[in-house]
Amino acid sequence: MVKICCIGAGYVGGPTMAVIALKCPTIEVAVVDISVPKILAWNSDQLPIYEPGLDEVVKQCRGKNLFFSTDVERHVSEADIIFVSVNTPTKTRGLGAGKAADLTYWESAARMIADVSKTDKIVVEKSTVPVKTAEAIEKILTHNSKGIKYQILSNPEFLAEGTAIKDLFNPDRVLIGGRETPDGLKAIQALKSVYAQWVPEERILTTNLWSAELSKLAANAFLAQRISSINAMSALCEATGADVSQVSHAVGKDTRIGPKFLNASVGFGGSCFQKDILNLIYICECNGLNEVAGYWKQVIKVNDYQKNRFVNRVVSSMFNTVSGKKIAILGFAFKKDTGDTRETPAIDVCKGLLGDKAKLSVYDPQVTEDQIQRDLSMNKFDWDHPIHLQPVSPTAAKEVSFAWDPYEATKDAHGVCILTEWDEFKTLDFQRIFKQMQKPAFVFDGRNVVDVQKLREIGFIVYSIGKPLDPWLKDMPVMA
Ligand SMILES: NC(=O)c1ccc[n+]([C@@H]2O[C@H](COP(=O)([O-])OP(=O)(O)OC[C@H]3O[C@@H](n4cnc5c(N)ncnc54)[C@H](O)[C@@H]3O)[C@@H](O)[C@H]2O)c1
Ligand SMILES: O=c1ccn([C@@H]2O[C@H](COP(=O)(O)OP(=O)(O)O[C@H]3O[C@H](CO)[C@@H](O)[C@H](O)[C@H]3O)[C@@H](O)[C@H]2O)c(=O)[nH]1
């Protein structure tokens, strides 16, 4: 029986391995992690991450051919194929701080593989890594190899959170990069035969190592660039009376452009886009490609601009101050159908409002109070390190309370900010919310989920990203 081991039981390692186990009953899959609570959770009824459809997949295979364990060394030494899916956060110190990928966790995983392996291994880069990482990993493994042969493959993951199971069942493509040597090609075939159990052959792409590594960074940069493009347009829509939804619909109808990923928002979040673009910028700079670096930097700058613009709209609409005012925050996760808050725009918006001394009441159906407090008190980039290395008892943000439902959050509030597009926000009883709020009552929709006209009829003053402005807001200065 082929044995697979995945180092890192996170958002990628857990769901990806669960789907491999489901689709390949003859393969034994072990997912290992240094975090004891995480592995305990994977072995319980309360999985450590919320992802639609994941529970069913895990329940079908756990204990049969899918195992979660903290016995990292044993499973690594027994495996034929080792996936490495550990954190690759942005460096916070030293050379390349604020841009380059921190490969500490990757390197320690590679050294451990070299220490415990007794048979030949295929080592698969599942984490998103800088181009040429495979070369560094190869050096670490072969310098300590004791005669054992390693083949390194790059197999970046393209799943999006909230749709991970759907994406894994039916991927647009699976990308496998490897050395163009007989042993390299053999390793590519071995991994290809795993995916071929359920992915049509023509969707499994094979390339050289560097193309596979770079394609992952490029794909995320292209996706994020589309969002920054439509968000830049949303500012112009507000200034001119155009409606960003109509503009994106009209633009997306061009088959060369396509309709997806053109929703204007308060800004993109998530653990990948900013981190991977910063990483791309750093690689460009290291290769002396400053104009190329500058091009991609702009995608992040527009994203920051969009978040600032939102906060400034809130403050300026409410008589230029939110000091002492209760603002309800509906949605904290970086997108719907996940409890993940890494790099969520809600953090920047909340921090911006707290900076103006607002009192916040936050509701999110999947994010805990503890997580929100952590996020609001953590330093930049700390969030993407393994949980046991994050600050243990963050200083609680005193002006932030946590609500169990949207009606409690909005009670006596002066304003409501919608920061995640949870489906339940589309069907809220806004009449009831209006009645219990201070007047004038404001709604700031950062996700374009509410029916603006209906809310204005109820009596709200409404700001919705990229939509024609409320008469109340028209004469306010547009600033960033
Ligand atoms: N989250 C996504 O949607 C997504 C999608 C595609 C690619 N990626 C990439 O995949 C990688 C992992 O992302 P994630 O979201 O799953 O991160 P995560 O933080 O959810 O999971 C990483 C896990 O690795 C564990 N870990 C770290 N060092 C370890 C070691 N030496 N031994 C054993 N376990 C160790 C951590 O404890 C953590 O549980 C990153 O490079 C990310 O950029 C993420
Ligand atoms: O039209 C859009 C689409 C998305 N977003 C925002 O963009 C962010 C990222 O969304 P999404 O890409 O759906 O989620 P991720 O889980 O971050 O997935 C991205 O990042 C992963 C990690 O690298 C990749 O594997 C995926 O292919 C890539 O889509 C979220 O804040 C969304 O709200 C918008 O504002 N407008």
TrEMBL record:
NAD(+) binds at residues 8-13, 33, 38, 86-90, 127-128, 161, 272-275, 342. The active site is at C272 (nucleophile). Gene3D superfamilies: Cytochrome c1, transmembrane anchor, C-terminal (1.20.5.100), NAD(P)-binding Rossmann-like Domain (3.40.50.720). Pathway: Nucleotide-sugar biosynthesis; UDP-alpha-D-glucuronate biosynthesis; UDP-alpha-D-glucuronate from UDP-alpha-D-glucose: step 1/1. GO terms for biological process: glycosaminoglycan biosynthetic process; UDP-glucuronate biosynthetic process. It catalyses: UDP-alpha-D-glucose + 2 NAD(+) + H2O = UDP-alpha-D-glucuronate + 2 NADH + 3 H(+). Keywords: NAD, Oxidoreductase. Pfam families: UDPG_MGDP_dh, UDPG_MGDP_dh_C, UDPG_MGDP_dh_N. The keyword NAD applies. Its EC number is 1.1.1.22. SMART domains: UDPG_MGDP_dh_C. One of its GO terms (cellular component) is nucleus. Belongs to the UDP-glucose/GDP-mannose dehydrogenase family. This is UDP-glucose 6-dehydrogenase. It comes from Cucumis melo var. makuwa.
